[in-house]
Amino acid sequence: MAVNNHTAVAEFVLQGFSGDPWLQALFLVIFLLLYLLALLGNSIIVMAISLNPVLHTPMYFFLTNLVLLDIVCTSTVLPKLLQGLLGKGSTISYRGCMAQLFFLTWFLGAELLLLTAMAYDRYVAICRPLHYSSMMSRAACLLLASAVWVVSAVSTSVHTGLMARLHFCGPNQIRHFLCEVPSLLLLSCSPTTLNNIMIVIADAYFGVVNFLLTMASYGCIIASILCIRSAEGKRRAFSTCSAHLVVVTLYYSTVIYTYVLPASGSSLENGKVVALLYTAVSPTLNPLIYSLRNKDVKVALRKMFPCLG
Hints:
Blueprint: E1 11-14, H1 21-51, H2 58-85, E2 91-93, H3 94-127, H4 132-135, H5 138-164, E3 173-174, H6 181-185, H7 193-227, H8 231-259, H9 265-292, H10 295-304
Parallel strand pairs: 1-3
Antiparallel strand pairs: 1-2
Protein name: Olfactory receptor
Family: Belongs to the G-protein coupled receptor 1 family.
Transmembrane segments: 22-48, 60-78, 98-120, 140-158, 204-228, 240-261, 273-292
C-alpha cells in the first residue's frame, strides 16, 4: 500500500502514565469518569440550547459548536487511552496513529479559531450593540462557523500529509499517550525541516494571531464596560463574557505550553499532564463553567430538570 512505502513501522507503542497495576487502575477510573462527565455535561448543554428558543442566538450557536468540538476531541483520545489502561495493548497502528493525529489537530485548531469567533461575537454585542443584528446575522454566523471548521481541516490536512511522507524506520515508542506532531517528529528517520516550518507557521496563526485577536477583542470589551456608569450595567455586561474568558485562559495556557515551548525531555513528561487538560479536563469543565456563570443556561437547565430548581 502507498502508506507502507513511506515507513517500515507498522505500529507505534504509546507510553502510559505508570506501569504500576494499582496506579493504572486508579487512572482508569479517573479518566473513565472524566470521559463520561465530558460526554454527559456537553450533551446536556446541547440539549438545553436546542430545546430553549431563548438561547437560539449567535452566542449560543457558537457555544454549541464549542461543545461539539469538546465531545469529538475527547472521543478522539480517551477511548484509546482507556483501552491501554485496561491492559488490552498500548499499541496503535500506523494508519490509526495518522487518523488520530488528523482529527486531534483538526479539532484543536478549530477550537482556537472558534474561541476567536466567540470573542468577536462578544465584542460586537458589547461594543457595537446597535449593529449586532446586522453584523452577527444568521448568514454571518454560519460563515464564521464554516470558516472555523474548513480552515482547521485544511491546516491539519497539510500537517498529516507532510507526516505521511516521512520515514519511520527506527524506534516506534511514542513518549506520549496520543499521536501528535511534535512526538512523532522525534521518531522520524527523514529530514523534518519542512514539517517544522509548517509547525511554526501554524503556531503563529492558530496560537499567536488568534490569541492577539482574542485579547484585542477583550481589551475593547473591558474598555467599554469601564465606561458604563451603573454598577449593575457593568455586572451584566461582564457576566455575558466572563465564562468565555475563563475558557480562553484555560485553553490557551495549556496549548501554548504544549506546542510553543521547546520539546525537552522534561517538558515531554509534563506535556502528558498538559495534554490531559485540553483533551479531558477542559471538555469536562467547560459545561460547568458555562452553566454556573451564565444565567440563561441556568434557567434552561432548570426547565429541563425541574428538580434543580
